Amino acid sequence: MVYPTGPFDRRVLEQGPDRWLRAQALEVMAAALKAADPAEAVRRHVRREGDLFHVEGEVYDLRRYRRIFVVGAGKGSAPMAEALEEILGERLSGGVLNVKDGYMRPLRRIRVHEARHPVPDERGLAGTREMLALLQDAGPDDLVIAVISGGGSALLVAPAQGVTLADLQCLTDLLLRSGATIGEMNAVRKHLSQVKGGQLARAAAPAMLVALILSDVVGSPLDVIASGPTAPDESTFAEAWAVLERYGLVDQAPPAVVAHLQRGLRGDVPETPKPGDPVLARVTNVIVGSNRLAALAALARAAELGMHTLLLSTFVEGEAREVGRVLAGVAREVAQHDQPLPRPACIVAGGETTVTVRGSGLGGRNQEVALGAALGLEGLERALVASLATDGSDGPTDAAGAIADGTTLARAEALGLDAHASLAANDSYRFFQALGDLLITGPTNTNVNDLMVVIVA
């Protein structure tokens, strides 16, 4: 069985505790996805009253602006821009967006380009060039609204001078396989780009810039989300170089990448804009949605379903398989001791784990969380762990994640599957596919990081 998110069918309650648990998990995750809807996130923070444009307590008089443009990138940027089209109406002059393949949403006044993710491609480069050409003509009497969401690091593509798209593609693949955190990856990418790390804001200056940001990063640091195109950059060339050294990538990285970072270390290439840089003086950054808001919505739905609830953390990081084992341990604690809360219990965690790829299998970090959890849940009754990528795309697969419970290993063994071997090969996708325990949502048009759900009845 494949588990799509959708309306809850209460008939599953009559089909045994395992199906009941899974139905509860789907209900909880569906509530989280609904709360993370990008268009609704924009509408919660932005409104128009005649010529007055309200954004999170700030008021912009539209009569002062000659033109209003929308630019941006990310998995949730199209519905965000769609909401702005509805709010601004005829006052919107145009714009350009880059979205991930499959996340296209035709807009009336804004051009939308589909592009590859997580490794950038030529279409992302072409869309970014169009964006920069639009901003080149922006003046002090123009208003630029940037819609930024997860995935923007790959979709905003403008290589630094002397670096090619092929160089960025190679480096991105190396970083993705290294086990580097998103912050470490973005420190490198920002220093090989003309748009990341506050440089999109530099391109928009001297126009007024308002950035609406849907966070997919633990803790929502502005300079890390989508590599911080509109925010002051806290990272440096030295930190970017240290990441390559830390993960043994100096000798594997393209020569042009190494040469550019070394020029930056010598001071021959300007740093990215830092706090206090004049090019950021007319920039306002607003977080409109985050992992925490989605997690709280999940808990609210669990409470409506009659469960005791706990938000464990929205700062979960670390190796995916180990996080899964920890979540399984939490489930056992609830099952045996009614701690940290009594049954029926729903515990939600959020964040972004990492996978150090050592095998040649197929999978993603959420599927690997679930596979790690399966090892710790073996034989435990009336308990499950589900892990979900809120963008609907977990690694290079069509799955958003997977569900594991106390029967997972026994069912796998009956099919001739070895969970330990699958984990060693990073082959979680084929493991859960054979069991029918993948979470398949399709593109969700949002991205607020990952959600992990523990339910014990």
Structure write-up:
Residues 1-16 have low confidence and may be disordered. The strands form 3 sheets. The protein has a 6-stranded parallel beta sheet, sandwiched between helices. It has helices at residues 17-35, 38-45, 77-88, 122-136, 152-155, 165-178, 182-190, 199-204, 237-246, 255-266, 291-304, 320-337, 365-377, 408-414, 419-424, 428-435; strands spanning 46-49, 52-55, 58-61, 67-73, 94-100, 110-115, 142-149, 208-214, 283-289, 308-316, 345-351, 383-389, 401-405, 438-439, 450-456. Helices cover 38% and strands 20% of the residues. The longest helix has 19 residues, at 17-35. Strand 10, helix 12 (320-337) and strand 11 form a beta-alpha-beta unit. It has 2 domains: 11-37 and 292-456, MOFRL domain (glycerate kinase, domain 1); 38-290, 3-Layer(aba) Sandwich (Rossmann fold).
Keywords:
457 residues, Rossmann fold, 2 domains, six-stranded parallel beta sheet, disordered N terminus
List the helices and strands and how they pair.
Elements: H1 17-35, H2 38-45, E1 46-49, E2 52-55, E3 58-61, E4 67-73, H3 77-88, E5 94-100, E6 110-115, H4 122-136, E7 142-149, H5 152-155, H6 165-178, H7 182-190, H8 199-204, E8 208-214, H9 237-246, H10 255-266, E9 283-289, H11 291-304, E10 308-316, H12 320-337, E11 345-351, H13 365-377, E12 383-389, E13 401-405, H14 408-414, H15 419-424, H16 428-435, E14 438-439, E15 450-456
Parallel strand pairs: 4-5, 4-7, 5-6, 7-8, 8-9, 10-11
Antiparallel strand pairs: 1-2, 2-3, 11-15, 12-13, 12-15, 13-14
Helix pairs in contact: 1-11, 2-3, 7-9, 9-10, 12-13, 13-16
